[in-house]
Design a protein that fits this description.
Elements (H helix, E strand, L loop, with lengths): L9 E3 L4 E4 L10 E4 L2 H9 L6 H17 L6 H16 L6 H16 L3 H32 L6 E4 L16 H8 L5 E5 L6 H13 L2 E5 L4 H7 L4 E4 L3 E3 L4 E4 L2 H11 L3 E4 L5 E2 L16 H4 E2 L2 E2 L12 E4 L6 E4 L2 E3 L3 H9 L2
Parallel strand pairs: 4-5, 4-7, 5-6, 7-10, 8-11, 10-15
Antiparallel strand pairs: 1-2, 2-3, 8-9, 9-14, 12-13, 15-16
Helix pairs in contact: 1-2, 2-3, 2-4, 2-5, 3-4, 4-5, 5-6, 8-9
Bound molecules: 5-S-methyl-1-O-phosphono-5-thio-D-ribulose (MRU).
Enzyme class: isomerase
Organism: Peribacillus deserti
EC number: 5.3.1.23
């Protein structure tokens, strides 16, 4: 069995969190130490750490850091201050529900504690639990995902739903990491993922590190590539899945799902149970983050669009459930009818 050759993107070090700086990849493999609540908030907003599960894990550790930094002995005041830190972290990015899911777990543990010291210990334990569970979850997603892909398959993906976007292995990329361990040949086509290029900077880098056969294309080449390279399946991650299966993921995902339907190939979403938001009946009401216009008008510090051009920069889109062949979770594979099957699957 070959060892997964990618670094952990998040590590807990008692006084600080160490993250892989995903802004610098692939040119530099740099690790950053986050000591304060503000460091953690900034790392999430600026995409130094990104990907739904990784955001949740980092925020959970951030809440633990913030609690540990408090010099407050009066328990009700301590609780109020930690809650404030949790709300602050929750305001960092709006779409990935894993952020709120992880912070809710942290808040529950906080409220259930009875002293300041007990709360501090419990918060660290809960954040570590969230991290460790995610590694196991992603491995399971990988196993189920791999069971859907015939050896020799050519598979397209977008964004980076990989090991560095989770505790380890990833969601959409987990089957590829496991295929290396199990010696099963698969070929991946990675869309570069404009505007901030998670596909070229992160997925291409991660899969190459792991020894996966990966080919990079621009987003506009997807239709031609599916046709001429005989792509067998598309697999993507998710930031939030509504109760009816509508799925928010990196902008461009919806377009790939439409292409999958046109070409008659399966379109799979891979995500942990923590990415489902059963409080939302449909994807229509998933909040879609709009990011700063410089992500589109500039590459690095170089302007590539006219001054003052109007810009629309949604970071995510919502793929309607009827375009999704199956949703792969750590508990198994969900097929339509999603309205009926998701609830049953998630509450297993
Ligand atoms: C396992 S990560 C799943 C999703 O979070 C991923 O596909 C994605 O869209 C990430 O967007 P990002 O803006 O890079 O955080």
């Amino acid at each position: 069995m070959q060892k997964l050759n990618i670094p952990y993107s998040i590590q807990w070090n008692e006084t600080h969190i160490t993250i892989l700086n995903q802004q610098e990849l692939p040119l530099k493999t740099e690790f950053l130490d986050l000591y304060t609540l503000e460091d953690v908030f900034d790392s999430i907003v600026t995409l130094k750490v990104r990907g739904a599960p990784a955001i949740g894990i980092t925020a959970a550790f951030g809440a633990a850091l913030a609690a540990n930094a408090l010099n407050e002995e009066h328990f009700p005041v301590f609780i109020a201050k930690v809650k404030e830190s949790i709300s602050y972290l929750a305001s960092s990015r709006p779409t990935a529900v894993n952020l709120f899911w992880a912070l809710n777990r942290m808040e529950s543990v906080l409220i259930e504690s009875t002293t300041v010291n007990e709360a501090k210990t419990n918060l660290v334990h809960e954040a570590l639990k969230i991290f460790l569970e995610d590694e196991e979850t992603c491995r399971q997603i990988g196993e189920y995902g791999l069971s859907l892909l015939k050896p020799g398959s050519q598979v397209m993906t977008i964004c980076n739903a990989g090991g560095i976007a989770t505790a380890r292995y990833g969601t959409a990329l987990a089957p590829f990491h496991l295929s290396i361990e199990k010696n099963i040949p698969l070929k991946v086509y990675a869309c570069e993922t404009r505007p901030v290029l998670q596909g070229s900077r992160l997925t291409a880098w991660e899969l190459m590190q792991a020894g996966v056969d990966v080919t990079l294309i621009t987003d506009s080449m997807a239709a031609h590539t599916i046709k001429t390279k005989e792509i067998n399946a598309i697999i993507v991650g998710a930031d939030r899945i509504a109760a009816n299966g509508d799925t928010a993921n990196k902008v461009g995902t919806f377009g790939l799902a439409v292409l999958a339907q046109h070409f008659g190939i399966p379109f799979y979403v891979a995500a942990p149970s923590s990415t489902f938001d059963l409080t939302l009946a449909t994807g229509e009401i998933i909040p879609i983050e709009e990011r700063k216009e410089e992500e589109i008008t500039h590459i690095g510090n170089t302007r590539i669009a006219p001054n003052d051009v109007a810009v629309f920069n949604p970071a995510f889109d919502v793929t309607p459930n009827e375009l999704i062949t199956a949703i792969i979770t750590e508990k198994g594979i969900i097929y339509p009818d999603y309205e009926e099957n998701i609830h049953q699957h998630i509450t297993l």
